[in-house]
Design goal:
heterodimer, A: about 160 residues, mainly alpha, 8 helices, 2 strands, B: about 350 residues, alpha+beta, Creatine Kinase, Chain A, domain 2, 2 domains, eight-stranded antiparallel β-sheet, 10 strands, about 45% helix, about 15% strand
Amino acid sequence: MFCDSVATVHLTDIVNKKKREAHLCERCARERDLLPQQAGQPIDLKALVNLMMAPDPAPAAPAAVAPLNCPKCGMTYAAFKGEGRFGCAHDYDAFAAILGPLLERVHRGTAHAGKVPAGARTARLDALRGEMAAAARTEDYEEAARLRDLIRQMEATQ
Amino acid sequence: MNLDTLLPNLGEWLRGTGPESDVVVSTRIRLARNLADYPFTGRATAAQKGEIVTRVKEAVGRVELPFKLDYHDVPGMTVLDRQFLVERQLISRELAAVLEGPRGVAFDAKESASVMVNEEDHLRLQVLRSGFALDDAWADIDKLDDALEARLPYAFHSQFGYLTACPTNVGTGLRGSVMLHLPALGITKQIDKVFRALQKINLAVRGGHGEGSRAFGDLYQISNQVTLGKSEQKILGEIKEVILTILQYERQARAVLMKERRQAEQDRVARALGTLGSATMITAEETMELLSVVRLGINLRLIDDVPATAVNQLFIQTQAAHLQKLVGHALDGEERNAARAKYLKTRLRELGSHR
């Protein structure tokens, strides 16, 4: 025992068939360099995400971060980092590259699964019908069937 | 419309009736929406905000709904009127005092539906209900949303859903919150345990008066944080499930109180009423704490001469802006405490004389 704290580190070593035991608190153990260096530390997820989203692009991933500013409202990634708010609806496309991990962290999901405005719904159905027809023309029947099911599903949940 | 006409009334949501109203004070759902073709409020110019106000006013005036929404401009309002609307939960502190430029709120006479314009998002729709009524509130706000959407093109994305200024609201843009009165869990010191469990499943807990507010008077607001990747029904269903569990805990704790210390509770309620009816200076915080005890006393049937609605009314009428409106002029802190005590004394005497 080296101090009054509760011993949480228990060492046993055997040298020349002689057993030695030591019981120390974590601080004493660290002071005496008895603990292995922090190699086995658990991964800090938050820090990792921050790293991925850092305003200064790490040289390893410049492609994903470099073009981030919105052509419509001029919002830059640094400004978004600072304010935490987007400037306009187009930012969601302009910043799509970094949005994925952010949304995953906040919502544990990245795709809308709720209400769809009537207007957007009609447009989406039209687009899907067009895609289905195109798939049928190129004889990609598997894709056409998938789209048909998707359209039916959307129509059913009206 | 002069806001003073609202003063003697009580918003529908404060009636203190509705399902599970012994524990659940009120239910609120809000939807964040933005108009396509305009930058979000934070980046919009004053002229653009003005256009948005004009368009929303026009749409709000024409929607066919069971209730009529009247629009009120915030910049033209006195500080007191703004604070008054904050206390009635019709506008946010941000819309009242932080944001700038053209902005306002439309709400109905019962104060059960409101639409804030140029808050963090162009539109913040809200429906308030008394008691535990997430399904009813959703039905109402869904209709209001459809009616506005028919006249105002919303910013919507096929992958991300309804687009919002802050990505924490994107997707459904929905925040469902339920205000709970949990005095017995407080007394039996189980409240922290309940809230730690809630945070693990991604529900937020706040004091009764919204973001950043402390839990005065054992009032707590439980709401969802996730808005993307789940349907509205799923989000509301998850809140519902949790609330039902908390309801059970609170009622169990109340039953224990009644079994093990009925006399002591009776005494606490009587003393709370005594203080409220005889103090000559009293702060808003102390008033909330004492009213909470009285509310519990009513629900435990330890007293039967004070109606629950009256307590709800006192909760709101004793807040700063309401008091100043009741008195008819501005009051500083000390004057407010004296006016609050005087008002409580008068109201409780009136209630007593109806015994």
